[in-house]
Amino acid sequence: QVQLVESGGGLVQAGGSLRLSCAASGSGFSINAMGWYRQAPGKQRELVATITSGGSTRYTDSVKGRFTISRDNAKNAVYLQMNSLKPEDAAVYYCNAQVVFGVLRDYWGQGTQVTVSS
Known about the structure:
This protein is an all-beta fold and 118 residues long. It has no helices and eleven strands. It has strands at residues 3-7, 10-13, 18-25, 30-39, 46-51, 57-59, 67-72, 77-82, 91-101, 103-108, 112-117. Strands 2, 4, 5, 6, 9, 10 and 11 form a seven-stranded mixed sheet that branches. A four-stranded antiparallel sheet has the order 1-3-8-7, with no helix packed on it. Strand 5 and strand 6 (57-59) form a beta hairpin. The chain is globular and about 45 Å long.
């Protein structure tokens, strides 16, 4: 059984910073890409950033230069450093991992709320 546990959301003023963390628990698996997605009220879930096991990253245009994704393969963890936050960044942020556990499948965290006040 693989579980993704997130932490680090909260309330911050516009221009502030937050760091999200996500760690995969369990054993007997490996992880390919990891990433962060977000979903604002009334909107579809969208990709924020992804990182491969080799460290290649990809960002949605709206967060480039402000957000940084990183991972610690030894800890099966992924992080999202969010700087210069804007009210439009407010959403529930979900961690995603492409896990090889017999077969390859996507796993999701429970979501963490990020609120940005203007």
